Amino acid sequence: MSTPLAAPAPGVPAAATPALAIPSLADATELSCDVLVVGGGTAGTMAALTAAERGANVLLLEKAHVRHSGALAMGMDGVNNAVVPGRAEPDDYVAEITRANDGLVDQSTVRQTATRGFAMVQRLESYGVKFEKDEHGEYAVRQVHRSGSYVLPMPEGKDVKKVLYRQLRRREMRERIRIENRVMPVRVLTHPDDGRAVGVAGFHTRTGEFVTVRAGAVILATGPCGRLGLPASGYLYGTYENPTNAGDGYAMAYHAGAALTGIECFQINPLIKDYNGPACAYVANPFGGYQVNRHGERFVESDYWSGQMMAEFATELASDRGPVYLKMSHLPEETIGAVESILHTTERPTRGTFHEGRGHDYRTHDVEMHISEIGLCGGHSASGVRVDAHARTTVPRLYAAGDLACVPHNYMIGAFVYGDLAGEDAAGYRAYEGELPADQLAAAHELVYRPLRNPEGPPQPQVEYKLRRFVNDYVAPPKTGAKLSLAVEAFTRMSDEIAGMGANTAHELMRCAEVSFIRDCAEMAARASLARKESRWGLYHERLDHPERDDQSWLHHLDLRKSPSGAMEFTARPVEPYVVPVAEFAPPGGPERPLGEVELVPVATAGPRDGAPTARRATTGTEPAAEPTTPDSAGADPVGAAPAPAPRLRLLRLLALVEESPDLAALRPYLDDADPAVRAAAVTALGETAPAGTGPALAAHLGDADPRVRAAAAAALRELVEVLPAEPLLAAGLREALAVPDQAVRVAALDVLRALRLGDAALYAASLADAGVEVRIQAVRALVSVDAVEELAGAAADPAREVRVAVARGLAAVRAPAPKPLDPLLDDPDPLVRGAALAALAGTGCPPEYAAPAVAALADAAWQVRAGAATALRAAPPAPAVPALAGALGDVNADVRKATVLSLLRHAADPAARTALAGAADDPDADVRAYASRVPRA
Question: What is the domain extent for residue 304?
Fold first, then answer.
C-alpha cells in the first residue's frame, strides 16, 4: 500500500498557520493507477470494488472523505426502481421510463438497470444492506405509481454507506484499492494525439498541494449538479440535493471533450416548505398518504414523478386551490408512528425537529409542500454525460456513472449498476506511462491557484450567490428565449468575476473551483434550453415561447460538446429504435442534425431602438407572442477552525483500530471496557467491520447494563441480518435477549430470529404474552413466517388494536390462507380492525358466505370498513360483487371509490364491471379516474 497524501496537523491555531503559498507545478505529487475513480459516493464505490475484483489497481479520489461522502451518506429510505422477478418485468420498467421521459430514452441503457438491478440488490444484500422482506423472506416490493411495483423499502437505509465503506476496507480490497481522501480533481487529462483519457489534475483540499494522476482509464462518479439554482431560503448549501455536488463531473467531462445530453431537462422536486428535504411521498403513499390541495382533493393525474407531474404540482400550487400538502393526518396512530420511524431517522434526522419547532404533528397537521430549486441530474431526470450501455462516454477510456450519467430516472440502484458496468469495462486497461500533457497541467494549475493571487478579491460566497441568483432569475422554468439569452450574457460576464475571486486557504480554493463548475453548468443549462425550441418534460423544460411538444422535429437527444475552438456546439441526435415498443412514441430516425452554436435572442433594447411605443399585439391567450429576430458537513474544514475537545484515549485507539478491519479478539478489550461509551463505540465498530463471531458477540451485548450499548447492539444486528451466519450461538443469545427488560431489545431479538429462521412457533407464540405492543406485533410477523395459523388466530383477542390489525393482515399472508380464522376479527368492535380483516379476504379468498357480509359492510359508517369491504370483493364471485361495487362508486369517500375501482378491474371480464369502470372515468378524484382508465381491452 502507498502512503496517503500528507494532511495538516490537527489543532494548529489559525494564527500559527502560514499563508498558503502557490506550489510549483514541478513539485506536484504524482500518482499512478490502472483505474482512477473520481468520487466516493454510490457509483464510485461500486466502480472501485468491481474494478479491483477484476484485477485492476484502483485509485479512488474523494474531495471529502469516502466514509461520509455522497448523497448516499445522508441515508436512503428505499429503492425506487427494483425490478424484482415475480413482481415486475424489465420490459414494463423500460416502457415506464420511456413514458416518464417523454420518449427521449436510449432504451439499451435503461434496460441495463432493468435487467441487472435485481442482481445488484442481491449483491448489496450480501454486503449487509438490508431490504424489507415479508414474513416468508420475500422482498416486500410496494406499488407507489399506478402501474408497476418497483419500490423496495430499506429499513436500515441510513447505514448503506457504512456498509459500502466496510467493503472497501476489507483486507483483500485494500491490496487493490488506494483511497485518497481530500483530493479534488478539476480537469480530466487527455492524450494530445487521440483524445483518450490518461489521468486527472487536482489538489489536496487541506494542504493545497497540486496532485496529478496517470491512469489507464478514468471513471467520473461525482454526482449531480445540485448547487445550481438558489433555494428559496437563500442558503447556498440548503439545497434539495447534497450541496457538495456542484457539477464537478459535468464540467470536467465537458472540458475533456465528452458529449453531454439532455442538459435542458432540469431536476425539480417536491419538497417540504422551508425545509431542504423531500416530502417523501414514496414513503408515505404505501402507508396511505397522498398529495392534496387545500381542499383535500387529490389532483395528480400523471403516473410518475416526472416533469409532467411537477407541472401539475406547480399549476395547483399557483392556483386558488393551493397550498399543496402531503396528507397523513387521516391515518391511524400506529401508521403515523411507522411513518415517523422512517422519515425522522433514515431520510432526514432533522425532519422531526423541524416539525416540532413549528408545533406541527402528522396527527394534527398535514405537511405543506413546495417546489425545489433547479438542478442537473441524470438519475432523477435526464441531464447528464452521454453514456452507452457500458458507461462509456464519447471520450475513449472516460466513463461516467451515477447521477452524472444520462440514464433517465436511474436512481440509486441504477447508480450501483452503472458503477459496476464502468468498473468492469475499465478494468481491462493498465496505467498510462507516457508524459502528461504540459499545457493541460498548466491550465489546471492556473484554475486551482489563481484565487491565491487575489487574496482580497470577492469571496466565494458572494460570487456564488450572485451566480445562482441569475440562474433563478433567467434559467428556472417557465423559460423564454429572451430570459435564457440574458442568462448566457450574465454567465459569460461572470467569467471574469469568478477569475477574480480571492482565497487564502485550501478549503477556499475548493469552494472557488466549485463556483467555476457551477458557472459551466449554468451556461450549459441556458444554452441547451435555448437550443431546444419546444416544450417537453412538463415543468422541466417549459418554453413559453414554444409551448407545444414537437415530436417530429424534437424527438431527438440534444447533445452538446466543446468544439476545438472552445465554443459550445449542439447536435440533434435521433433516438435509437426502441427495444421495447411504446405506443405513445415513434422515433422518426434519420441522420444527426448538426445545430452548431445556439443563436441568442436580441435583448439589448426593449423593442426597436428608435421607435415609438407600440400597441401590444393581440393573442388568443394560448399562442405565444413571436420571438424577436454556509457550512458544508461533507467538505473540508476551514483552516483555523477551533479544535474539537479531545475524546478519551481509548476511543481514539478504537477508531484507529477500526480502519485496519480488526478481528473479534482485537475488539474484545473495548467490548468489555468498563466505560459504557467505549463499549457502545466498540459495538458500533463491530457492526461496521463484521469479523467472524460478530453475531454472538452482538447478541451478548443485547443484555448490557447500559441502554446505549443495547441500542447499538440491536441496530447492528438488524443491519447485518443478511450477512450473519444462522449459528446456534447466535440463536441462544437472541433467545436470552427475549427476557431483557428493554422492549426495543426484545423487538430486535424477535426480528432477527425470524429473519434468520432461528425460532419456532412455540417460541414466537410465547411472546404474544409480552407486555410490549411492539414485541407482540413482531411475534405476529414471526408466526406468519412459520405459517402458525392456529397461534395467530389465538392473538385475535389481543387488547391492542394494532396487534389485531397485524393478525388480520398476517392471516392473509401465510402460505395457505383461509377466511375462517378471520371470523372474530370481522366482528371486531374497532372499525380499523374490521377494515383490515375485510381487506384480508382479498388474499384468503372471499367465497359466497363471506361475500354477503362484505356487501353489507359497504354501508358501514366507517370509511375504513367500507374500503376494506370493497377490497374484499375483488376475490368474491362476480355475481354478488360487481353490482355491489358498481353502487359503491357513489361513495362519498375517495379512498373507498379507489378501492372499488381496483376491485372492479379484477372483474373486468364482466361487461357490467366494464360499464361501471367507464362511468368512473369522470370521477372528481384524480386517483379514481386514473385507475378507472386502466380497464384492459376486451
Answer: 270-371
